[in-house]
Amino acid sequence: MTQRPHQRGAALLTAMIIVTLIASLAAGMVWQQYRAVQIEAADRARAQSTWILQGALDWARLILLEDAKQNRNKPVDHLGEPWAVPLAEARLSTFLATENSSATTDDGPEAFLSGSIEDAQSRYNLRSLLGGPQVPELEKRVLERLCSQVNAPPGTAGVIIAGLRAAFPDAASAASSSASGVGSTPVSDSGPLRPAGVDELSWLGLDADTIARLQPYVVLLPKLTAVNLNTAPREVIAALFDGVDLASAERLVQGRKASPLQKVDDAKAYLPASVQIDAGRASVDSSFFIVTGRLRLDERQLEQRSLIERDGLHMNILARERINQLLDRDKP
After folding, report:
1. What's the count of helices (H) and strands (E) in the chain, helices before strands?
2. Can you give the residue range of the structural domain that contains 237?
């Protein structure tokens, strides 16, 4: 009889241990199920985002295709064409709702899509710095003027030129070999990484602020291109030619709004008479475009930037980049 209290205490302790184990196992199962639901929701959102952004890219390709068909006989690209009109942010919750068609838009996730098409040839192509064994003096002056206009640190142009020449040594090697009639030689891979775009100029030693200042005015395309005078900002036009200041470039920008340039020589009416316009460095049509699509889902925004080359009626996607951002709701 004296051992019964101890036995009851041991039984109670055993029961408590069993209950604790069961609760722990149950909590673990609930947590695993919760995580599985979260992963499934994230995968579904990622798949939806991919298809929506792919649709935006297809929309851009269709717009550029129709523009190419209309301009087949006389290719002219300017900011008054449909491709240059950005797509304002539109709510897509109705299309993403999982309920039936009678459900309200509040039942689905908050999804908003916006986008734009930008002429990549409205910027100065840094590829022009790689077209020979030596950097052409004119191209060097163009980059120096651009760096000065955006208040970049002194020596920025030299850093870009030296970095690009080191990253793309085969361009100079091919040019010198072609001039001498000798076959090209293998190029060492010991140089710096080759930047694929302006964002990656940080590999050459530029800081983020300098890159942000230069971004609206320079681009790095796969091949040499002319600057489209119908779409280029005044800073690029002023830097492109010797003897052109911002005031003259602004006259061209204002004049093309009323009447887009139909040929390169039309720009002479707005620029000083001493300016020489090389048709190989300036144009009124474009082949490269940057398509940007932005999808906002709740507090996150997914941005996709694609580089498209328009080759006749063929739209070739050369590069694609996605940026996932967490929006700050506290900002206005």
Report:
1. 8, 9
2. 226-286
Three-class SS state of 31? helix
Residues 262 and 311 reside in one and the same domain: no
Whether residue 237 contacts residue 253, with contact meaning beta carbons closer than 8 Å, is answered with: yes
Please state at what angle helix 137-149 crosses helix 156-167, rounded to 10 degrees.
Answer: 130
Using CB atoms within 10 A of its CB, is residue 187 exposed (0-12), middle (13-18) or buried (19+)?
Answer: middle
Q: How far apart are CA 134 and CA 169, in angstroms?
A: 11
pLDDT value, residue 183: 38
Do 203 and 253 lie in one domain? The reply is no
**Pairwise CA distance, residues 320 & 309, whole Å:** 12
Structure pTM?
0.79
Determine, yes or no, domain membership for 57.
yes
Express each pLDDT in 278-311 by its tens digit. 878 999 999 999 999 998 877 778 889 999 999 9
* Same-domain status, 114 and 168: no
